[in-house]
């Protein structure tokens, strides 16, 4: 029996531009949805976006990123798989390495054990989603699949928290290099 060809071959240059444009223009689209539709990984899809919307840091900056975010106050921690989208509004607890994992322990609702050694890339994303401005730090594994995302929190009026925006910008600049961050002169 002959092997079945991939129904979604990797997109060529023109198709990649088309995917990026669609993702930029349609804030209702989830990156994971676009990735599934085109036989790509979520990291591959984000790499189609311009630097003004997505910048990258190496996975080796995992501990630095988590240590910084643990001081931001309440954020949205999101885990997106094909089977569930789990959202937890919480302060990221301080973590430390032990027994092969980065362990989150604290008094709040968020805790667990993350295989940080599998983190290959960290994306700093500035993309409207569900018609709302967002900022997120997205962690991707060695296969380009999402590990989890941390979104800048919102105040009672659903505006992004200004102090967290400043911290996001500073962490992005520090981990992604000295290139100008979107919105700076």
Can you walk through the features of this model?
The chain is an alpha+beta fold and 185 residues long. A hairpin with a 2-residue loop joins β4 (95-98) and β5. It is globular. It has a domain at 53-176: 3-Layer(aba) Sandwich (Heme iron utilization protein-like fold), CATH 3.40.1570.10. The chain contains five helices and nine strands. Residues 1-7 and 179-185 have low confidence and may be disordered. α4 (62-69) runs antiparallel to α5. Strands 1-7-8-9-2-3 form a six-stranded antiparallel beta sheet. A three-stranded antiparallel beta sheet has the order 4-5-6, with helices on one face.
User: Which percent bin holds the helix content?
Assistant: 25-40%
Would you tell me the structural class of the helices and strands? alpha+beta
Number of DSSP helices? 5
CATH fold descriptor of one domain? Heme iron utilization protein-like fold
By CATH reckoning, the class of one domain would read Alpha Beta
So, the CATH homologous superfamily of one domain? HemS/ChuS/ChuX like domains
Which stretches are low in confidence, meaning pLDDT under 50 for 5 or more residues running?
1-7, 179-185
The helix/strand series, from N terminus to C terminus, equals: HHHEHEEEEEEEEH
Keywords:
5 helices, alpha+beta, 26% strand, three-stranded antiparallel sheet, Heme iron utilization protein-like fold, disordered C terminus, 26% helix, 185 residues
């Amino acid at each position: 029996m002959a092997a079945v060809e991939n129904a979604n071959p990797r997109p060529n240059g023109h198709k990649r531009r088309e995917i990026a444009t669609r993702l930029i223009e349609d804030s209702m689209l989830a990156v994971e949805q676009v990735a599934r539709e085109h036989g790509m990984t979520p990291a591959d899809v984000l790499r189609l976006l311009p630097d003004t919307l997505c910048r990258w840091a190496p996975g080796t900056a995992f501990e630095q990123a988590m240590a910084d975010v643990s001081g931001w106050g309440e954020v949205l921690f999101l885990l997106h798989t094909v089977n569930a989208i789990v959202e937890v509004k919480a302060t990221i607890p301080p973590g430390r390495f032990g027994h092969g994992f980065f362990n989150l322990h604290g008094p709040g609702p968020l805790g667990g054990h993350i295989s940080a050694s599998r983190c290959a890339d960290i994306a700093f994303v500035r993309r409207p989603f569900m018609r709302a401005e967002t900022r997120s730090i997205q962690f991707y594994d060695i296969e380009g699949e999402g590990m989890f995302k941390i979104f800048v929190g919102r105040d009672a009026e659903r505006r992004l928290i200004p102090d967290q925006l400043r911290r996001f910008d500073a962490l992005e600049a520090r981990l992604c290099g000295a290139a100008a961050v979107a919105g700076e002169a």
